[in-house]
Amino acid sequence: MKKQLALAAALAAAPFAALAGGHSYTYLEAGYAQLNQELPAPAGFDIDDIEAGGFYVAGSAEIAPSIHLFGAYRKGDDDVSVSLPMGGGEIGSAGIDMSQGVLGAGWHHDLRDRTDLVAELSWLRTKIDVKGDEEGADEGDDVRIAVGVRHLIADNVELWVKGNYTDGDLYDGAFSASAGVQYKLTQTWGLVAEAEGGGDTSMFGVGVRASF
Asked: Which of 41, 89, 116, 205 shows its CA 20 to 30 Å from the CA of 62?
């Protein structure tokens, strides 16, 4: 009877044990993303902020025991309205396309069995285009430094938080914070959600991740 109980307990715990594989730095990911950008209003007018909803794809590859490369591409669109203040009503609107590409390299180190310290250096290419505008797109390149931690709060639930500093063409020495969560359905597949905010920009996304 004791052997049977032990076998039953081992079988019951097997699915969770299979998920407990530590942090994966090799994965592919895709889903929905929204890129937000605050816009300065011309004198005497009110203008909506950009809330460009669309898609994203992302990936990471561990190329050495403590080194990984990563990248992402996010793209969305929105209709932005211009109106008169004090309830004066809308006087016009414009379609906006917004996209951002990211390429970078990271270093990670075990702090504890379930916690990794992560440091990253990345390049961001951001583009904001007003549809039908002869002025052309507003685009630029920026460099980002990020430091944070990844932590397994359960065998199938991972959290991460990072502090970011971004500077260049579109970001002027901006600090931001990002946080995310992954719920692992299997050893390979998981559901992910991430948000970032700080300064004039913010972003959030939800998607599916395949870890390898």
From this structure: 205
